[in-house]
Amino acid sequence: MDDFTEQGLHDAIAAAESPTWSVRAAAGRHLAAAPQIEGVTGVLHRLLLDAQDTGVTSDTASALLARRDLAGLRAVLAARAVASDLGTADQLAAELDCDPRWATGQDGDELIVQLRTLAADRDPDVRSEAQLRLTYLR
User: Fold this and answer.
1) Fewer CB in 10 Å around end: N or C, the chain?
2) Is the model's pLDDT at 1 over the cut of 50?
3) 80 close to 92: Cβ distance less than 8 angstroms
């Protein structure tokens, strides 16, 4: 699963259904690194909310946040907003709170700008979660 061809993405989507947590986590990392994730947001959402293992949640969220773009952050916020399992919700919150961009001033500012943008998102769950994250900063 080293490529982003149609077959590579198809293989990663299939791997996302694996009974083995490490295979699902690898699928999450692969799909999160795709140049365009819009076509696989449903699969990423399921992986972020993986009820069987928070390792899948952690790896997928970390890879999405490593993109450093609105699409990745939006996907993690959307999952965090609807996570009903406490372990999954806590893991998503931890990934957001431990985003490496918080470690430096310039990168933290980038993240704040993205959160402000998403605080006006069309999806009320994303909007609410972004607003909540901004509230924590005040």
Assistant:
1) C
2) no
3) yes
